[in-house]
Amino acid sequence: MGYGIRLKVWGDYACFTRPEMKAERVSYDVMTPSAARGILESIHWKPAIRWVVDGIHVLHEIRFESIRRNEVEGVLSAANITRAMKGERASLAQVITEERQQRSTLMLKHVAYIIEAHFEMTAAAGSGEGPEKHYNIFLRRARQGQYFHHPYLGCREFAAHFSLIEDGESLPESFYQDLADKDLGWMLWDLDFKQDMNPKFFRASMQGGRIAVPDLMNGR
């Protein structure tokens, strides 16, 4: 296991969309490991490291709120993009006023989590590039509130705030700390980028407010 960190993240709203919901957005009950990884990578990421999420603590009560949002009906044509990259004439315009439609979103409100994670060195690490370097970079950036792009809670419009939990610092109490076990069902773990971005799922269970996250990439 590489160098470990604990990061508290929170925000007013969050939506960790269930992939099985096609027409409307419906959030998982809690943050997914892939969303946690995205927050860590927004603070510090290089090809030389791979973030591994070990656990997620749920601090606040799980509460939902339903809203309606304007979204676009479709996406840009991949074929048109390919033709444009080849120098051919192709339309890349998307007229929002013609494709706008209202969709319902079942999202979370007033959320707070603690991400437990570590990173591992990859084959892309250069000679003499040790884990201490990346560990110290992350600590410095997290302490100063720095990031490469603003971290978010599932959707970009739901901004995430964060603060580093230092070694020896006690964890905040969880609303579910006295709950022995809560089955959260099957949850998206992450995408396997080595296998054509295939999604991987795991059976999530919350015990005392903490969800233990397996490392399916390495079969752990």
Task: Describe the structure in your own words.
The protein is α+β, with helices and mostly antiparallel strands and 220 residues long. It has one domain: Alpha-Beta Plaits (2-Layer Sandwich), CATH 3.30.70.2660. The protein has four helices and eleven strands. Strands 1, 2, 3, 4, 5, 8, 9, 10 and 11 form a nine-stranded mixed beta sheet that branches. A two-stranded antiparallel sheet has the order 6-7. The longest helix is centred in the middle third of the chain and has 14 residues. The radius of gyration is 19 Å and the shape is globular. The model has no long low-confidence stretch (mean pLDDT 89).
Please write the string of helix (H) and strand (E) elements.
EEHEEHHEHEEEEEE
State the low-pLDDT regions, or none. Answer: none
CATH class reads Alpha Beta
Please state the oligomeric state of the protein chains shown.
single chain
| Name of the CATH architecture | 2-Layer Sandwich
Largest sheet: 9 strands, mixed
Reported by name, the CATH topology is Alpha-Beta Plaits
State Rg: 19 Å
Show the helix and strand layout:
Blueprint: E1 4-14, E2 25-26, H1 33-43, E3 49-58, E4 64-72, H2 78-85, H3 96-99, E5 100-121, H4 131-144, E6 152-153, E7 155-159, E8 161-164, E9 182-192, E10 198-207, E11 210-212
Parallel strand pairs: 2-5
Antiparallel strand pairs: 1-5, 1-8, 3-5, 3-11, 4-5, 6-7, 9-10, 10-11
Briefly say what this structure is.
The chain is α+β, with helices and mostly antiparallel strands and about 220 residues long. Helix content is about 15%, strand content about 40%. The protein has a single domain, classed as Alpha-Beta Plaits, CATH 3.30.70.2660.
